Amino acid sequence: MLLARVEGNVVASRKHESLLGWRLIICQPLDAQGNDLGTPVVAIDPWGAGMHQRVIVSSDGLAARKVVGDDRSPVRLMITGIVDETES
After folding, report:
1. Is residue 15 part of a domain?
2. What is the pLDDT of residue 87?
3. What is the CATH number of the domain that holds 25?
4. Could you give the CA distance from residue 82 to residue 48 in angstroms, rounded to a whole number?
5. 8 vs 28: CA distance, rounded Å
């Protein structure tokens, strides 16, 4: 799991059939202080996260494939929650 910020959408004219109907979101990983950490990743979004919202991204590919309903799907990352606030 990692903390990330939504940076945009992926627009694809063609994608794997298991991803049809799913939003693909560009997420910038963040460290505990909210600073950028590494390179952006692409995750499916079942929650409707908005631009610049902080989200929790799971790298459990098996769970993501179960959500899309295809064991052969190339999906690996999935937004598992939207962060409302953090405590120090």
Report:
1. yes
2. 75
3. 2.40.50.220
4. 9
5. 10
